[in-house]
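Posting for a labmate who doesn't have an account.
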Amino acid sequence: MATRSYPFSVARAMDLDPTFRTLLDEEPVSRVQLPFGGEAWLAVRYGDVRTVLSDPRFSRAELFGKDVPRVRPEIAEQVPTILDMDPPDHTRLRKLVAKAFTARRVAELRPRARRLTAEMLAGMRAEGPGADLVGHLSVPLPVTIICELLGVPVADRPIFRAGADAALSMTSQTPEQRAQSMGAMYTYMSGLVAQRREQPTDDLLGALVVARDDGDKLSEAEMISLAFVILVAGHETTMNQIGNMTFLLLTRPDRGAALRGDEAAVAQGIEELLRFTPLGASAGFPRIATEDVELSGVTIRAGDTVYVATQTANRDPAAFPDPEQLQLDRTMPVPHVAFGHGVHHCLGAQLARMELQEAIGGLLREFPDLRLAVEPQDVQWRTGGLVRGPQALPLTW
């Protein structure tokens, strides 16, 4: 079995490296060489990806602090976040915040998201053709909502945006730059915690402080790292996906009209866009096998590192008929794995869905003649990070 360098290439716009298709057809579990830490396994088929993400024999906690195959030179040395935990520690932390992201709570947030979207689109219209979607909507919408939910001042956006960029950086920052930005972010979150102790609030951060001080349900370090993860994950991926999905629709002008219908059509279309849109630009979060496990006829040995390609799993013809076609009225035969699967399934999935529905649906309703203000090949994309998205998306109408 040949070993390939991974990532296979630099992510370009919304393109998937053709190697993924080759592996999907011919070598669903393959050997890959990461930039640091050696070789790992890569699973690309839908069934295998779901197994790795949900089977307790594949551990996240076993990775922390170890010299495992990875895309960055440094080994994680700070306190583990909820992303680095297995049950029961993961379950304990997740329960503390899950009620903030229930379907009912998200439904209560929808009117606020709709008003914000309308205000931001009005600002974009006022600027006139050539306005940048990223600055007017993609960034401020999810940032405002997660800040209000968590209890973080929106005015402090430069601080936590720098922390988010560091957390998701691969080559865009040096280890020293990442350490500096992450350290500043943790100091910032510690300051907000101190404020909550002096002046209690009823936001999510205030609830975490109470759980720490009165319930003793998490340590001080866990509380700060949990708030950090919620803040970063609560806006970063949605921010990029608003731009990614808009780009996809505007480079397929016959498709966007389907999302100007009722809310059910928008919701269905967003699910298909989630399946189809490649968000990852590099290797994501790996697992360690704690015992021998077989995937597609390949034996993964205990101690081996395993990566999964969810974007390729979402293009698996065994799971999705005509997977390379963007069909906005598609009825999903099985759930896509854009939000992961298993115990680490994205906690904010319902919130992200709602924000995407409001942003994309509102954009296409308000601007029926919307189109790119530049040629598709001239759109500037973010580089050197774990996820992809436009640096700016100039639009006209």
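Reply:
Got it, the structure tokens are right above this. The longest strand covers residues 29-33.
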